[in-house]
Write a structure and sequence with these properties.
This protein is mostly beta strands. Helices cover about 0% and strands about 40% of the residues.
């Protein structure tokens, strides 16, 4: 004979499940998941990307708040500008653009021309000033 389900919580709750519809519910692609491995520190910064992201260092007294703050990894000492680089989506690929940074950006040891888009691939190395980052494309929504 089946037993009744045991009630684990006798109190009533007014919290209802969310009826919010997300982009995933509507069949839209998942965001890219990207890791930037900071080679000098052996740390990784992992983020989801569905809109353009500015990479640099935060300077609150000047009102600079990049999407990805590299300040905790000695960014200022390594020559990273406040708004050094922008990552953005273009169809099924990711593009990088140097924002006319003071110390420039290298992509796989080649200088990027400021304000020009460059495609980014898994394993690419990006140097922001003297800070070296390795790109890891952890989740591609198109594969």
């Amino acid at each position: 004979m089946p037993a009744d389900t045991r009630n684990l919580n006798n109190r009533q709750t007014d919290t209802l499940a969310s009826q919010e519809i997300t982009s995933l519910d509507m069949g839209m692609p998942r965001p890219w998941r990207i890791a930037l491995r900071i080679i000098q520190k052996e740390n990784r910064v992992i983020f989801d990307m569905s809109t353009p992201m500015v990479i640099g260092r935060m300077v609150p007294e000047m009102g600079f708040y990049p999407d990805i703050d590299l300040g905790p990894y000695n960014a200022e000492e390594l020559g990273v500008s406040r708004q050094h680089l922008t990552l953005k989506l273009d169809g099924e690929r990711i593009l990088a653009m140097d924002n006319n940074s003071a110390n420039g950006t290298l992509l796989n040891n080649e200088r990027m021309i400021p304000r020009e888009d460059y495609p980014i691939r898994d394993g690419d190395e990006i140097s922001l000033g003297l800070m070296k980052l390795q790109v890891e494309l952890m989740m591609n929504p198109f594969n």
